Amino acid sequence: MPRSSYALVMALAMLATSTQQALAAVNTYNAEKLENNFLMFRKNAMYAMSDAPYVIASENARSVIEISLKFNVPPELAADPNTLVQVSAFPAEDYKYLGINVEDAGSSAEGSPGERLYCCSESMAAEGAVCTVPHSLIFSPGAHDVVSWDVMPDGEGEARLFRTYTIEKKGFYYLVINFCNPTSSEIEVTGETRWVNPYGFLPAEVYGFLGFYFYMSIAYVVASMVWTYLCGRHWRELHQLQNCISVVLAFGLLESFLRYYDFYHFNLYGTRSKFFMFTGLFFLCVKKTVSRMLVLVVAMGFGVLRPSLGENANKIAALGGAHFLLSYLHLVITQLNHSRALTFGGFLLEVPVVAVDFIIFMWSFSSLAVIIKSLGARRQETKLDLYVSFRRILVAAVVVGCAWSVFFAYCIRTNYVDLHWQDFYKLEAFWDVLYFAVLLAIIYLWAPSASSQRYAYDKVDGFDPRDEEYATGLEDVKKPNED
């Protein structure tokens, strides 16, 4: 594969996978099963009251993790004094101290070489090398900010915990629930945990999206107002391509507003509204699809050099439909996945999305090359300048997208996101900015004006498109010496 094509594929791959994850600040547990020697944990970024970007004007403003849980233990273990449920909260810096390698756990530890132990056994507690409380969670030396609550069941096998963990400094935090008892298979966990930031429920690592989509909505409103004014002022001069631009603007405005309200609702209630999340994703995919179709039909000269798409219309419709369906399915699955890591299923869905993107952009560049070559041969300077400018914009967008993709891949493969979590939203918001920048460039090039018809399709009498040398249907282009 040529190097330029490989770079384009990499950019499209990053663009296809960029999306926010389906986090939650109010986590509900409905009799969920927790097996012995397994950990049930949550991870969110939090601001402290002293370093939050915004604090609500209310006496209820706080930065805490509120825990309200009930545990159902098997009846046969209710009277066992060693039956222990443990809940721990700690900053992400202490996560590396969670558990201990079997080689470092003392002579009484049991496990395979290289295995990491999380539960303190009775023999390990008796030895006292790494832990002293049997059936508790192991933290190796070095963990300083771990707060743990031990919960013992009553005579009926129920245990309850109501606690509040106060956030003292910004960063990622873990909440871990563990049950270490080799004589029992599982327990049930019921209740909820609430991660409350000083401004609301929105996890700190995605707080930036709230402001970003607010300003993107304003930007689309301003662009739409200017475009509507120009269309109204020069409505007699409008042509088909400008109507397509109006549709793309409308979808972009609607998608930005829905995305903003999705995060606004999240911040207010602590969970994402499925309606606004899936509706926002729907219009996000619509925007991405119609934006690509707009680039493609512009590159093919629609409305300027040809009155219709001809036999290509069905191909473009099929390509657009495939892109929309694959993109929506991919986004829904990645949104429902709490991990930022690319799963095998997500990879299988990503490949066809990238393939369709690659076809669209390569078709666009090849069409542009044919149009520019043809217009140059026929010395149609006005339209030639227009399409040369458009090609420069697309090339610049691909180059910038490839560069950002390399940086994006670096951030995902390293711990950059954990270290710079406050800037995480910028990694994904960049693609929205790039979409909008390309759209603004198209708006500028094809803005309605008194001279818009200079760029509109104008059939030349006596010209037969079947004789077109490049077979592109550029029916308004005269051949040399045709007069």
Automatic annotation (TrEMBL):
Signal peptide feature range: 1-24
Transmembrane spans: 212-232, 244-261, 281-304, 316-333, 353-372, 393-410, 430-447
GO cellular component: Golgi apparatus; membrane
Location(s) in or outside the cell: Membrane
Positions in coiled-coil regions: none
Record InterPro entries: GOST_TM, GPR107/GPR108-like
Topology within the bilayer: Multi-pass membrane protein
Alphabetized UniProt keyword annotations: Membrane, Signal, Transmembrane, Transmembrane helix
Residues annotated as domain GOST seven transmembrane: 211-453
Domain of life according to the entry: Eukaryota
Protein name: Transmembrane protein 87A
Species whose genome carries this gene: Hondaea fermentalgiana
Native organism taxonomy: Eukaryota, Sar, Stramenopiles, Bigyra, Labyrinthulomycetes
